[in-house]
């Protein structure tokens, strides 16, 4: 037997960094937890993800059909399905939302003759895409507001310079997954059209907006000239996105998709997972949204009853099945408390990352999916009481932020 076969030539592994150790610890706690508010596919093992796709795929597409090649077959089936759900003429599959939105807005810029895109300061392209609109697509962005809400119609009307497109992120994730009211949204669209601007919805999480708006997806999408949706954020797919809108726009977008390197040889795993998400998760999202409101209220009451000097649920009630929790403690303390609770009790109340927002002030995001539907108000309060008991045992009380 060779040295390689016996492992004698293997080099010792580099010691893990503190960040990597924490990541592994959080992952182990999540996998081992018996109670969570959400089971997110992206945090499952490869074996679990493949097994889930193998189970779901036969119910969403004929697996005896030829595999896709450069966007045909199951990918085209997914595009037709998305267009039907959103009520648009056509849709195009993209490997990422970053690519889909760059393409959409550069296509609109060519039509309007104005490469300026008006958006929120917290919009995804402004915060998370390394200035891709400017550096790659040749677009220019202007910020309508930085407030933790959608812009107002008056802010659009009063903006000091022209813009070719208004981009609205629905919901606005970094502001707390917030949405405007239906009346406010229609006024935003009207205000943009008064300025001869097209309207594009960054609808990465648009799927769960129907409860808040009280409207079906097709009616929501009909307000915009184009819409982008994601397949992994709410539908628990492997990845990918779609751009939906008029047929001529979508056909042009497919040309740019090729130019951007998005004409991938085969994409059937992502397409099948997206179809499965449309079948399985999309019909359940309204239940998740409604129960998130129950969970949020129980968290608020639980913190007050447990002696936390100050807490905030934002927005209250939640607009979607995701919302923010703010507490007056440092992020590393909250992260450690959440981990110890998971490791010692099997309940992982806050498996997300805690973000330091200021001295002694931190925020995390809470998601409620199928696993969370089992939690009663009493369950949430009990978990909060245990969490806070651990927290207060090791940290001094602080005053509420101003």
UniProtKB/TrEMBL annotation:
Organism name: Streptomyces sp. 900105755
Name of protein: Beta-eliminating lyase-related protein
InterPro entries referenced in this protein's UniProt entry, alphabetically: ArAA_b-elim_lyase/Thr_aldolase, PyrdxlP-dep_Trfase, PyrdxlP-dep_Trfase_major, PyrdxlP-dep_Trfase_small
Domain Aromatic amino acid beta-eliminating lyase/threonine aldolase: 70-300
Keywords: Lyase, Pyridoxal phosphate
Cofactor: pyridoxal 5'-phosphate
PANTHER family found in the cross-reference section: L-THREONINE ALDOLASE, L-THREONINE ALDOLASE-RELATED
Family from the record: Belongs to the threonine aldolase family.
A molecular-function term among this protein's GO annotations: lyase activity
Composition bias type Basic and acidic residues, residue spans: 10-24
Entry-linked Pfam families: Beta_elim_lyase (PF01212)
Region annotated Disordered, chain positions: 1-24
């Amino acid at each position: 037997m060779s040295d390689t076969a016996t492992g004698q030539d293997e080099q010792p592994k580099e010691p893990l960094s503190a960040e990597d150790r924490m990541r592994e610890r959080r992952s182990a706690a999540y996998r081992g937890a018996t109670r969570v508010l959400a089971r997110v596919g992206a945090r499952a093992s490869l074996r679990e993800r493949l097994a889930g796709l193998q189970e779901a795929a036969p119910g969403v597409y004929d697996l005896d059909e030829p595999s896709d090649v450069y966007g045909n077959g199951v990918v085209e089936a997914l595009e037709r399905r998305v267009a039907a759900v959103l009520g648009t003429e056509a849709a195009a599959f993209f490997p990422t939302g970053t690519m889909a939105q760059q393409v959409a807005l550069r296509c609109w810029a060519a039509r309007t003759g104005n490469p300026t895109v008006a958006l929120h300061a917290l919009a995804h392209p402004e915060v998370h895409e390394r200035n891709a609109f400017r550096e790659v697509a040749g677009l220019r962005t202007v910020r309508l507001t930085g407030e933790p809400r959608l812009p107002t119609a008056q802010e659009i009307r009063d903006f000091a310079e022209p813009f070719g497109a208004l981009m609205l992120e629905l919901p606005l994730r970094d502001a707390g997954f917030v949405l405007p009211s239906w009346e406010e949204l229609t006024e935003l669209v009207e205000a943009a059209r008064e300025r001869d601007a097209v309207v594009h919805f960054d609808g990465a999480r648009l799927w769960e907006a129907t409860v808040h708006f009280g409207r079906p997806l097709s009616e929501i999408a009909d307000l915009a000239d184009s819409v982008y949706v994601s397949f992994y954020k709410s539908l628990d797919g492997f990845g990918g996105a779609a751009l939906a809108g008029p047929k001529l726009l979508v056909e042009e977008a497919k040309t740019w998709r090729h130019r951007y390197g998005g004409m991938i040889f085969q994409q059937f795993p992502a397409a099948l997972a997206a179809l499965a998400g449309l079948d399985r998760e999309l019909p359940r999202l309204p239940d998740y949204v409604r129960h998130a409101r129950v969970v949020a209220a129980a968290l608020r009451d639980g913190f007050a009853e447990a002696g936390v000097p100050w807490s905030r649920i934002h927005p209250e009630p939640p607009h979607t099945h995701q919302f923010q929790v703010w507490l007056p403690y440092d992020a590393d303390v909250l992260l450690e408390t959440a981990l110890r609770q998971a490791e010692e009790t099997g309940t992982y109340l806050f498996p997300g990352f805690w973000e330091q927002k200021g001295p002694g002030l931190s925020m995390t995001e809470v998601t409620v999916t199928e696993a969370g539907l089992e939690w009663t108000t009493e369950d949430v309060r009990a978990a909060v009481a245990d969490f806070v008991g651990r927290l207060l045992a090791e940290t001094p009380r602080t005053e509420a932020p101003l």
